[in-house]
Amino acid sequence: MRVVIQRVKNASVKVSDQLISTIESGLLILLGIETADSRSDVEWLCKKISQLRIFDDEQGVMNLSVKEISGDVLVISQFTLHAKTRKGNRPSYIHAAKPETAIPLYQYFIDRLSQIMNKQVFSGSFGATMQVSLVNDGPVTILIDTKNKE
């Protein structure tokens, strides 16, 4: 499971020019699910994200988590995070999970993060063509892959 986490001032997602979700200060999470991913990857990742200290404290030091600032979270499914580009010029997505595996893990990720955060976690529409807008705060962008836990 791979995520791109962006600290944002605000973010939103549209499908067919209709606003699906919008957030204020918090995190935009692009979530890529791989065939080998499981609920244990979701558990580890949600705990890590909720405790990631990337928001400024009173001294301007990144010392606070999204949970501590009561920030919003928007999760967008993005299978392209598992693109293989070693050969040729057309990326291969062979390791990205198929919908029958990815959809339940995507929903579990949203539900589990919502439980940990004790607030609603917003999302896009799985499998849809989406237009994502954001104002990156910092900019702060963090990459995490559950295959690199240790």
Explain what you see:
The protein has 150 residues and is α/β, with parallel strands linked by helices. It has one domain: D-tyrosyl-trna(Tyr) Deacylase, Chain: A (3-Layer(bba) Sandwich). It has helices at residues 39-51, 99-117, and strands spanning 2-15, 18-23, 26-32, 55-56, 62-64, 72-77, 122-123, 130-145. A hairpin with a 5-residue loop joins strand 4 and strand 5. The two termini are 14 Å apart. The mean pLDDT is 96.
Explain the layout of strands and helices.
Elements: E1 2-15, E2 18-23, E3 26-32, H1 39-51, E4 55-56, E5 62-64, E6 72-77, H2 99-117, E7 122-123, E8 130-145
Parallel strand pairs: 3-6, 6-7
Antiparallel strand pairs: 1-2, 1-3, 1-8, 4-5
Helix pairs in contact: 1-2
In short:
The chain is an alpha/beta fold and 150 residues long. It has helices at 39-51, 99-117; strands spanning 2-15, 18-23, 26-32, 55-56, 62-64, 72-77, 122-123, 130-145. It has a single domain, classed as D-tyrosyl-tRNA(Tyr) deacylase (D-tyrosyl-trna(Tyr) Deacylase, Chain: A, 3-Layer(bba) Sandwich), CATH 3.50.80.10.
